UniProtKB/TrEMBL annotation:
InterPro entries, per database record: ATPase_NBD, Gcp-like_dom, T6A_TsaB
Main location: cytoplasm
Name of protein: tRNA threonylcarbamoyladenosine biosynthesis protein TsaB
Keyword Repeat belongs to the record: no
UniProt entry keywords in alphabetical sequence: Cytoplasm, tRNA processing
Family stated for the protein in its record: Belongs to the KAE1 / TsaD family. TsaB subfamily.
One Pfam family of this chain: TsaD
Species of origin: Candidatus Pantoea carbekii
Gene Ontology annotations for the cellular component aspect, listed alphabetically: cytosol
Localization (cell): Cytoplasm
Length: 231
């Protein structure tokens, strides 16, 4: 059976939607920082109409759960909850960082990816991903200062693809490091189309959730809480 997945992301200044049905994919991607709430639902309606589908025919609703913009993450969760409740759909949250790693795999078959999104205040949402033979990405997501990211990069070896908007914002991150080759890509922001294989894998692994389990991943609040919890 071919799974029908609707994916949406509003975690950054871009918003995107993708729909797969019988292996046919339709997708939209727009950079419009303050238009997420106005544009997402019309785009979803457009893609469903194009594939002659109703929302209730979807098997799984995937959404970008962060990290990224606080407001953008809340928009994604709010829209997801509204759609899922109305059509009784299961959901799955997908990381914005791992979505970009998946983009690197889709484009250049990268299995080692450095993913970063600007967290402002001199900090970066950061992950160092590796992909195994089963297509599973492993890597810890965190928020780090530029100085710490530089120190982490200095310890790496081999070939690593780089994705996210931080590489243009902080060009010093790309400085030459012995035994390390950084492979540039054009992947700047997460895109819903590349959430589809991640959502499909979550479906196969029975990692889907109920609508009440739509949980945001902010990282900044989580790190602050962890620091305050330690004596």
């Amino acid at each position: 059976m071919s799974i029908k997945i609707l994916a949406l992301d509003t975690t950054t200044e871009a918003h995107s939607v993708a729909l797969i049905n019988n292996e046919k994919i339709d997708a939209r991607f727009e950079i419009a920082p303050r238009l997420h709430t106005q544009r997402i639902l019309p785009i979803i309606k457009e893609l469903l109409y194009k594939q002659n589908m109703r929302l209730g025919e979807i098997d799984l609703l995937a959404f970008g759960h962060g990290p990224g913009s606080f407001t953008g993450i809340r928009i994604a969760i709010s829209i997801t909850q509204g759609l899922a409740l109305g059509a009784h759909l299961p959901i799955v949250g997908i990381s914005s960082l791992v979505t970009m790693a998946q983009s690197a795999w889709n484009q250049i078959a990268a299995t080692h990816v450095l993913a970063g999104i600007n967290a402002r205040m001199g900090e970066i949402y950061w992950a160092e991903y590796q992909r195994n033979d089963q297509g599973i990405w492993t890597g810890k997501e965190t928020i780090l200062s530029i100085k710490i990211v530089l120190s982490r990069i200095a310890t790496l070896k081999g070939k690593w693809a780089i994705v996210g908007n931080i590489w243009k914002i902080y060009p010093e991150l790309s400085k030459t490091v012995p035994d390390l080759q950084l492979i540039e890509t054009n992947i700047i922001l997460p895109i819903a189309k590349d959430m589809l294989p991640l959502a499909s894998r979550a479906w196969q692994r029975r990692e889907i959730k109920k609508v009440e389990d739509a949980i945001p991943v902010y990282l900044r609040n989580e790190i602050a809480w962890a620091k305050n919890s330690n004596p």
